[in-house]
Amino acid sequence: MRRAQFVALLALALAGAGPVAAQDSLPPAPYAYRQLDDPVLEAQARELMETLRCLTCQSQSIADSDAPMAGDLRHQVRTRIAAGEEPEAVRQWLIERYGDYISYSPQVTSRTWPLFAIPAVLLAIGLLIIRRRLSARR
Amino acid sequence: MRRLRLSLWLLVALALALFALFALQLSRPKNEFVQSALVGKRVPDFALAPAVESHPGLSSADLADGRPKLLNVFGSWCIPCRAEAPQLEALRRQGAEIVAVAIRDRPEDVAGFLQVYGDPFTRIGADQISAVQLSLGSSGVPETFVVDGAGIITHQHIGDIRERDVAILLDELRRAGTGA
User: Fold this and answer.
1) Which among B34, B75, B140 is the nearest to A24, CB-wise?
2) Are the Cβ atoms of B130 and A72 closer than 8 angstroms?
3) Residue B23: strand, helix, or coil
4) CB < 8 Å to A27, chain B
5) pTM: predicted TM-score of the whole model, two decimal places
6) Which of A14, A102, B40, B180 lies 20 to 30 angstroms, CA to CA, from A90?
7) Which of the pair, A71 or A20, is modelled with greater confidence?
């Protein structure tokens, strides 16, 4: 009896476990899941897509996500690259719209330079300490 | 010896300060919203076909016809878009002109949505692959942009419009109208 109840509950839970957010009913954009015919361009698009953040699923890249919006973004990337745009120009186009947030590729800017400078400074301090210790021993 | 001990305490203080920083930052709520970087800039050029027979489509030229507007980005399949329908209707009653972009939608679904949840829109463009949404820097549905008469985006509201947002949007619209 207990077991039957458990199974019934489990079935109910699984039946209700569909996606929380409603999804649209349109098919994916043409180039959401289709690769470009030119393997060189596809490789460029692929590389770029892996460094662009999915907006509706913020911890994935658009290459990893099945969200409809990520598919539409892949379509944008592929068609723009197929039309001859440079990958970095496409990234810049997106940064103009969404800010640095959309890019996983870190840039040195007036706000982010300490992230790049601090490790170098720490390394320099470490080397200095080692040198002083070694010379003190002699 | 004295100096060594002092520097050790400094190290401890530094570590404590670091943990305090972590605690402070981790206790802050995470902001999940990605603001559009286009606020203050012109609406990108676009021209969308009608999303439904009863309404004309939408182009960027329609957004620069001299009158400030609300640009609502929605989808008939989007649940929060249903929740904000009464607020859009209230905005329309108080004089807001509202145009819309329907994301990844079919004409019959849009018509059904308007029938059930009301129709505050003067124009609805069909954006079937989110191209205009992406060019606007919009990261989901629903979102509402305030656009002034010259086609400059002056404000972005992310998420569904709640009752308290109605006054804010009307105020933004007024400011867009006076150019202040």
Assistant:
1) B75
2) yes
3) helix
4) none
5) 0.81
6) B40
7) A71
